[in-house]
Write a structure and sequence with these properties.
This protein is mainly beta. It has a single domain, classed as Jelly Rolls. 11% of the residues lie in helices and 42% in strands. The protein contains 3 helices and 17 strands. The protein has a 17-stranded mixed beta sheet that branches. The longest helix has 15 residues. It is globular and about 40 Å long.
Length: 231
C-alpha cells in the first residue's frame, strides 16, 4: 500500500512539470535547494529537472548547485546563493541559432559554451553594469554589490568580449577581468592573471579548491557576491 502511494506521488510530480522534448533546455538540481519560476507561474521547488522551453528564473540557496543544459550542448552551472534569469532563449535562436541572454542578478556561474560556426558571439551574460559576450568558451562569471569578475579558462581570440559603461575589452585563456563598483557604478577595472585569484565563488565548482589548488577558506571574493562562502 505504501509503495502504491509513493508511486502515485511520483506520478503526480511528473505530470505537474512541463513535458520534455529534444528542443528544450533543461534546468537540473545537482544538490541543495533550487527554486525556479516559469513565465506566468509561481516559484516552485525543483527536485530533479525541468524542461525550460523559453525563459526561467532560477534561485539557489546555501550549499546548492544547479545546471542549465542548453539545446546546443552548452552547459551553465549555477553556484549557491545565485539568482539567474534566462531570457527568451528560443526567441533569440530565431534570430541567431544557439543564442540567448543570461541575466546574472547576483552569484556565480560556470559556463561551457560550444564553439559555433561564424564569428558572432552566441550567448550574453549580463549584470546591471557588465555584459559578457561569449562563444566557444569555458570560464566563470561572478557578480555582487562591489564588483563583477570574469575568469577565462579556455578563451580563444574573439571568444570573450566584455562591455561596461566605460570600455570594451577582450580577455583570453589565463586572464580575468575585475570590474570594481561603487554605488552601483563602475569605478575601475583591471585585467589580472588567473593565478592571482582564489575566489570561493569559483572554488565551489571545484570541490572547494581554486583551479591552482588553493583552498577556498584562504580566498576572497572581490565582488562581494557571498556565493561559495561557508560561514
Amino acid at each position: 500500500m505504501l509503495r502504491l502511494i509513493a508511486c502515485a506521488a511520483i506520478a503526480l510530480t511528473l505530470f505537474a512539470l512541463p513535458a520534455r522534448s529534444a528542443d528544450d533546455n533543461i534546468l537540473r538540481r545537482d544538490k541543495g535547494t533550487v527554486t525556479f519560476t516559469l513565465p506566468g507561474d509561481d516559484p516552485l521547488p525543483l527536485e530533479g529537472e525541468v524542461a525550460v522551453s523559453d525563459a526561467v528564473v532560477a534561485t539557489t540557496a546555501i550549499a546548492t548547485l544547479a545546471t542549465l543544459q542548453l539545446t546546443d550542448s552548452s552547459e551553465i552551472r549555477i553556484g549557491d546563493r545565485t539568482t539567474v534569469r534566462i531570457g527568451d532563449l528560443h526567441a533569440a535562436e530565431a534570430a541567431g541559432p544557439a543564442s540567448g541572454t543570461i541575466f546574472l542578478e547576483r552569484g556565480a556561474v560556470r559556463f561551457n559554451v560550444v564553439h559555433p560556426k561564424g564569428a558572432k558571439a552566441n550567448y550574453r551574460f549580463v549584470t546591471p553594469t557588465t555584459q559578457v559576450a561569449v562563444r566557444g568558451t569555458v570560464g566563470y562569471f561572478v557578480a555582487g554589490p562591489t564588483g563583477d569578475q570574469v575568469y577565462c579558462v579556455k578563451c580563444q581570440q574573439g571568444d570573450v568580449v566584455i562591455t561596461t559603461a566605460s570600455q570594451t575589452i577582450e580577455i583570453h585563456s589565463g586572464q580575468s577581468l575585475n570590474v570594481h563598483l561603487e554605488n552601483g557604478a563602475v569605478a575601475s577595472s583591471e585585467v589580472v592573471g588567473n593565478r592571482t585569484i582564489n575566489n570561493p565563488a569559483i572554488d565551489q565548482f571545484l570541490n572547494g579548491f581554486s583551479p591552482f589548488g588553493k583552498p577556498a577558506q584562504n580566498g576572497s571574493d572581490m565582488t562581494g557576491s557571498g556565493s561559495g562562502q561557508r560561514l
